[in-house]
């Protein structure tokens, strides 16, 4: 819903948030299963911004799936491609960008995100992540006899780095609109925008 027009902006105004955001993108980071794509889409819809999933962009550029890229070229080459793709995408803000779980571990990618975006870490507990990722078979790093142990190790390695993000929002098993609203509230606080912006359930997608 479009807020009433006032001067310069009403409290809780999308326009006020976008004004403060400028050309920067909102960049979601976090482990697989944290909900970066689902929540990112909600935030993009609420703010009237475009949404890009970096994994989908990589697949489009390479014409290969992420598992195929890992298998054929290995993780090092994949991360190099990921870095280039994310760097290019960030030149076209503002937008909402969801990144792969390992992207923020790359120092150059972190630098690009810092220079062209506001980073948001969706922090999730192990049980929630396991429940979500176990439903999908397209996670190259979890093709292991003990995926829970692998995921736990990834948390130990990556959470300190994810903690460098501009914002941290705890995610959980709740409505996407609720988490998206908390992300936008955190963005407003970070950017000094007063008031609250409500994320409507009317915009819910059913993908």
TrEMBL record:
Pathway: Metabolic intermediate biosynthesis; chorismate biosynthesis; chorismate from D-erythrose 4-phosphate and phosphoenolpyruvate: step 5/7. ATP binds at residues 33-38, 139. It holds the Pfam family SKI. The keyword Ubl conjugation does not apply. Its main location: cytoplasm. GO terms for molecular function: ATP binding; magnesium ion binding; shikimate kinase activity. One of its GO terms (biological process) is chorismate biosynthetic process. Coiled coil: none annotated. Mg(2+) binds at residue 37. GO terms for cellular component: cytosol. InterPro entries: P-loop_NTPase, Shikimate/glucono_kinase, Shikimate_kinase/TSH1, Shikimate_kinase_CS. It is found in: Cytoplasm. Substrate binds at residues 55, 79, 101, 158. Its EC number is 2.7.1.71. Monomer. Belongs to the shikimate kinase family. This is Shikimate kinase.
